[in-house]
Amino acid sequence: MSVAYGAGLRVSEVVALKVSDIDGQRMTLRVEQGKGRKDRYAMLSPVLLERLRAWWRLGHAQGRILPGGWLFPGMDPTDHVTARQLNRAVHLAAAKAALDKRVTPHVLRHSFATHLLEQKVDIRVIQVLLGHKRLETTALYAAVATDLLRSVISPLDQTSDKPRPE
């Protein structure tokens, strides 16, 4: 769940991550064959890197995460968890947190984009981070970035009859 929110990845991209996709030097996650069969890089925050390192230490100590294997192995460590299993985990976490809104793994990706918009990150940068081909797809997230919209000052307000400093 931290990867979906922290890097803005699609469910299919999260479950298919391999240990070798983490680049702590460049602070990136390699997404192999994402949507449209395209490879891309996603951001890797320092907090997410530390969480993934802790996850790897635990999984490696238990023999679940194999060298060069899946970051999120399934019951059989040679296979990765499924999108359905991740979906169930998100629903379970939302229920434990007593959230009354519908929460899905895609909501985490959506929140990633919305929160970046609210931090005034350029929408073209968000487009690249999300792996969108068209800016119009990314622009859909602007509809829910209400904090950002409220903070915008209309050009009309700046040309009003208020006294202006000389």
Can you describe this structure?
This protein has nine helices and three strands; from the N terminus they run ααβββααααααα. With 166 residues, the chain is mostly helical. It has a single domain, classed as Intergrase catalytic core (hpI Integrase, Chain A, Orthogonal Bundle), CATH 1.10.443.10. Strands 1-2-3 form a three-stranded antiparallel β-sheet. The N and C termini lie far apart (54 Å). The mean pLDDT is 85.
CATH topology term = hpI Integrase, Chain A
> Structural class of the helix and strand makeup?
mainly alpha
The CATH superfamily title:
Intergrase catalytic core
Number of domains: 1
Strand order, sheet with most strands: 1-2-3
From N to C, what is the helix and strand string?
Answer: HHEEEHHHHHHH
Q: How many strands, which pairing sense, and closed or not: the largest β-sheet?
A: 3 strands, antiparallel
Which architecture would the CATH scheme give at its second level? Orthogonal Bundle
The CATH C-level class name: Mainly Alpha
Using brief descriptors, characterize the structure shown.
6% strand, hpI Integrase, Chain A, elongated, 166 residues, 47% helix, mainly alpha
In a nutshell, what does this entry contain?
By secondary structure, the protein is mostly helical. The protein has a single domain, classed as hpI Integrase, Chain A, CATH 1.10.443.
Detail the topology: elements first, then pairings.
Layout: H1 2-7, H2 11-15, E1 22-23, E2 28-31, E3 40-43, H3 46-61, H4 83-96, H5 105-118, H6 123-130, H7 135-139, H8 146-151, H9 155-158
